[in-house]
Amino acid sequence: MLKATGLLAAALLLISSGAAYSRSQASPTTLVWAKGAITAFAQDGDQIAWTSFDNHATCPWQVRIRLLGPKKQKIVNKSPGLTCHSDSARYLALAGKRALWTLWDSGNLSYMRLVMASYSTVRDAQLEELTFNEMGGDHLGGIAGDSSTLVYGVATVGLTGPPDCDIDGTCTAVISGGSVERLTGVGKVKVPGSPRPVMLAAAGNRFAAVIAATASSAGSIGPGSPATVKVKDAVSGTSVGSFSPAGKPLALAFAPSVVAVLETTAGETQIEFRTPTGTLLRTAAVPAGATGLSTTDTRAVFRVGNTIRSVRVTAESIQTIGTAAAMPIGLSIEGTRVAWAENVKVHGVLRGRIVKVTVR
What's the confidence (pLDDT) of residue 224? Predict the structure, then answer.
């Protein structure tokens, strides 16, 4: 359990966007440097993973998993596999020593490939390719990992409305289908009775998904309002609980005992904390521009610009716990370790590094 420190109680409380916060910062500690720029970062337990681009390498796009205990790491995408010469590696999830990431390409259509590898197999294998454009198609509905659970979502989007609505912009983007896929040792399997997610988070053997009938647009599946959050067993598909957030969801985070939704409502931004069965624990007002939500059972973290902030699930104050040197990538909390990636110039060359701050 995390314990409150005397520093938090003694710090000066300020008011920002209706939320109180204290400025108690620790200097971030560098965990590892990358040779090139980092594009995605994830952590789970004593493992971290990241995607990076090194233009001077034979395999420019690289995905690494690092074991923090023995301080060992591997490139898990096999050269010259799918990932090496992709256009972009965008999203990343980690479950133990298994990684799931996306590759993006575009032409007349946009393509999103779901690719997996592990610390032991060291081979990137494609699971599925999603195809879409501004008229609709199959969109990524999120990827998430924790412990033994590694999942991704697919949401099928189409346009509905009067004739020529695609020309005058009056169409409604409707989410007409989708599923949640769970990764197995060698492939994937559809979760029974899985929803059509637009956001996804995992904790233990469960996942939480934001479900919405309409999307922001055919080219983006950010949820419209109202939306529903459903929590399910990732293997059996059994329902654990569901609830309707008060506002429009911006981000979703999940821990074994807490579901956190960052949302906008009535012009305000807040985090809604609930149990997996849907019982409201409390809401906490946060500054506008908050993003990058992650949570444990006791504490959530998010960022506003380059500042890393934390709020306890059962307390009102917001604490600034660190400041990134550049835009934080993949901010998340694992136990007492808050970590993210950032890209900084070293001797005129852009390099990525992963840093951490310890919270109590």
Answer: 66
For 333, the token pair is 């909390």
**Within 10 Å of residue 169's Cβ, how many Cβ atoms?**
8
| The Cα angle at residue 181 between residues 184 and 111, in degrees rounded to 5 | 110
The average pLDDT across 176-184 equals 95
Residue with tokens 């939320």: 19
Copy the structure tokens of residue 39.
Answer: 């594009």
Alpha carbon of residue 83 to chain centroid = 20
3-state secondary structure of 6: helix
pLDDT in tens, 208-260: 999 988 887 767 777 766 899 999 999 999 999 999 999 999 999 999 999 99
Sign, Cα dihedral of 225, 200, 284, 13? negative
Q: Which strands form 136-146's sheet, in the order they lie side by side?
A: 88-95, 98-106, 110-118, 125-133, 136-146, 149-160, 172-183, 188-190
What is the torsional sign of CA 256, 258, 263, 265? Answer: positive
Query: What residue ranges define each of the domains in the chain, with the CATH number in brackets?
Result: 14-310+326-358 (2.130.10)
3-state secondary structure (DSSP) of residue 165: helix
pTM of the predicted structure, to 2 decimals: 0.90
State the Cα–Cα distance between residues 269 and 247, nearest whole angstrom: 9
Q: What is the mean pLDDT of residues 330-354?
A: 96
Q: How far is CA 112 from CA 18, 154, 245, in A?
A: 39, 11, 29
Prior bond to 226 cis, omega within 30? Answer: yes
Q: Could you list the beta-strand ranges (E) of 26-78.
A: 29-33, 37-44, 47-53, 61-67, 72-75
